Amino acid sequence: MHAVHFDGSFAGWRDAARAQLRQGMAPHQLSWVQDSQENQDLFAGLEAPQPAAAADRPVRVPRALIEQLESAARFRCAQRWALLYRILWRVANGDHAAMLAGDIDGSELHARLKAVRREAHHLHAFLRFKPRDATAGGPELVAWHEPAHDILASASGHFAERLGRQTWLIATPDDGVYWDGEKLQHANPCPPEWQRLAQGTDDRNEAMWLAYYGSTFNPARLNRSVLETNMPVRFWRNLPEGPLIPRLMSQARAGAQVDGQAEAVAARPGKRISADAEKVLPVRQ
After folding, report:
1. Superkingdom of this entry's organism (predicted)?
2. Is 72 found in the same domain as 91?
């Protein structure tokens, strides 16, 4: 088996894959090794002879395939690069079914594309910026996020479009991005100082946000399975409202659903409206 070493980026993989295709190397002959994983690959020391007869053959594939492979490369798994090369190999040899969802490889490709798109949506929906003192220097807003896939660099431009020249920083366990008001800087790995800044900043408005979130929570409409599907539990610990959610759900199950309103709201003076009121009140035509 031939070990193909590259830097772990899609551009690095693409150049290495193009070279292997020109040499006629089949997917089963290759082991993809990121530089940081060299010592962990059991096959890194095994080399396969290069087929001289097929060397430097032209490689032509649809542009759409390259775009799909680049997006799918953000999906984290042990065999992320092997699948991409297998699909590339098949299409380069005329088997375009590899791009289709009905194909065994194409099905896995489209599943990864869907997971990457959903993870980008999670970044946009569940990221919480914390403001910093403008006189302290550095970014005005910071945030900590733990994505399941490598979507930060490609998906964080969403915030640049919405925050204008306001400077901000997003740090993750793996990489980070910094917007200085004009351009987006991506760092992989994420600098430790960025991680400390994102995790160590307190939000002075957090108490107000928690009061708003708790008072607008509607226990009568609670559907735990839907909630956990739309807001996966793995994000709760990095959301300011995350610690409130289990308590609010517990209160709903304990009887708050009868009132159809949050406990703090129900305790205030005034007329109480039960969750069943719509069943007894006349409906105007």
Report:
1. Bacteria
2. yes
pTM summary value = 0.81
Written as six digits, the tokens of 81 are: 């690069």
195-254 pLDDT, tens digit per residue, is: 999 999 988 889 998 988 888 888 888 889 999 999 999 999 999 999 999 988 888 887
Q: Provide the domain count of the chain.
A: 3
Q: pLDDT of 169-185, one tens digit each? A: 999 999 999 999 999 99
The size of the chain, in residues, is 285
Burial 53-66 (b: 16+ CB within 10 A, else e): eeeeeebebeeebe
Alpha-carbon torsion (205, 207, 208, 214), positive or negative: positive
Q: In Å, what is the CA distance from 267 to each residue of 213, 254, 256?
A: 16, 16, 11
Q: Which residues lie below 8 Å from residue 95, measured CB to CB, with a gap of 6+?
A: none
* Rg, C-alpha atoms of the chain: 25
Q: Examine residue 147 and say whether the peptide bond preceding it is cis (omega within 30 degrees of 0).
A: no
List the domain range (segments joined by +) for residue 107: 2-46+58-119
Instruction: DSSP for 212-251, please give it.
Output: HHHHH--GGG--HHHHHHHS-GGGGGGSTTTTHHHHHHHH
Q: Is residue 273 part of a domain?
A: no
Judgement on whether residues 11 and 109 belong to the same structural domain of the protein: yes
231 within domain boundaries: yes
